TrEMBL record:
<feature type="domain" description="Prolyl 4-hydroxylase alpha subunit Fe(2+) 2OG dioxygenase">
    <location>
        <begin position="20"/>
        <end position="94"/>
    </location>
</feature>
<dbReference type="Pfam" id="PF13640">
    <property type="entry name" value="2OG-FeII_Oxy_3"/>
</dbReference>
<dbReference type="InterPro" id="IPR044862">
    <property type="entry name" value="Pro_4_hyd_alph_FE2OG_OXY"/>
</dbReference>
<protein>
    <recommendedName>
        <fullName>Prolyl 4-hydroxylase alpha subunit Fe(2+) 2OG dioxygenase domain-containing protein</fullName>
    </recommendedName>
</protein>
Length: 99
């Protein structure tokens, strides 16, 4: 049984969105691109809580990665995914900026 991802929108505007997301045990995110209609998309993900096992973020190319905790990348250009969370939860504070 896989629990649902819980997303809380902290800020939503034309150019900047901020989310607090909880990924539960058993969840994974398959390889994908984040499509946008116009412009460039940048994401800064801050991993607040890492799962005990699994749940690693994998991206074709990061602009910045600090120990897998603070990651800046272009989700519209580079395929990314999150491996299956085998034990624990993954909490993420995500900033999405469209330029």
């Amino acid at each position: 049984m896989t629990a649902n991802v819980k997303t809380r929108i902290l800020l939503r505007s034309k150019r900047l969105n901020i989310y607090l997301v909880r990924y539960p045990e058993g969840h994974k995110v398959g390889p994908h691109l984040d499509m946008i209609a116009k412009g460039r998309l940048y994401k800064l993900n801050c991993v607040l809580v890492k799962p005990k096992v699994g749940g690693e973020f994998v991206c074709e190319r990061n602009l910045f990665n600090l120990a897998g905790r603070v990651i800046l990348f272009r989700p519209d250009l580079y395929q990314h995914r999150v491996e299956k969370i085998k034990r624990g939860n993954r909490w993420l504070l995500s900033f999405a900026l469209t330029v």
